[in-house]
Design brief:
about 190 residues, 7-stranded mixed beta sheet, Ig-like_dom_sf, CTLA4/CD28
């Protein structure tokens, strides 16, 4: 009996550990909407290009019905929002609180658009992908993306710092806040 259990586990573990969700390191948003790409690796979608160097292929049937959930925190314990995606039909958007998610498949990734974010929502977020159909039920969690939501003053500083990186020095006038201020590139450390 023990030999049978070990044989079954040895056949299942490589398939479970072969698929992972890869996310970008950082996403910056100035308007409260962030775009997070969640890549299943290896890609299950039949539009993928041939695999070089005999890389692993996706070991399960191509997903049709799935849910993408955005989890907040280092260990991804707080559910922020989710979106159910039917790859053969229309997109359904789930709402939770003030933050809303909408998912779609684009260029080999699941693209999650998160709206309603504020500067205080800056944190590490993980994609949790659940595949409902076809069987078997699968669940994969990503490595995490730092979503940095810039407030109005943070956004001005971000623009000015990026100008310094490009060697430009211009005065930036905010539309709704204080008047323009001269910014020195030498103040950046």
């Amino acid at each position: 009996m023990a030999l049978f259990v070990l044989t079954v586990l040895s056949l299942c573990l490589p398939a479970w550990s072969a698929v992972k969700v890869v996310q970008p390191y950082k996403v910056v948003s100035s308007n409260g909407t962030a775009l997070v790409h969640c890549f299943l690796h290896p890609q299950p979608f039949h539009h993928q290009s041939p695999l070089p160097n005999n890389d692993l292929s996706y070991p399960f049937p191509e997903p049709e019905d799935l849910r993408v959930t955005l989890l907040r925190g280092l260990h991804g314990s707080t559910k922020i929002c989710s979106s159910i995606l039917n790859l053969t039909g229309p997109i359904e958007t789930g709402e939770e609180g003030e933050v809303q998610c909408s998912a779609q498949r684009r260029e080999g990734a699941l693209e999650l658009t998160v709206s309603g974010l504020r500067a205080t929502d800056t944190d590490l977020y993980r994609c949790d992908i659940e595949i409902f159909y076809p069987p078997p039920y699968l669940r994969f969690t990503g490595n995490g993306t730092l979503i940095h939501i810039l407030g109005s003053s943070d956004f001005i500083m971000y623009l000015q710092a990026s100008q310094c990186d490009r060697g430009r020095r211009e005065i930036i006038r905010p539309v709704h806040t204080v008047d323009a201020a001269v910014f020195s590139c030498y103040n950046l450390a």
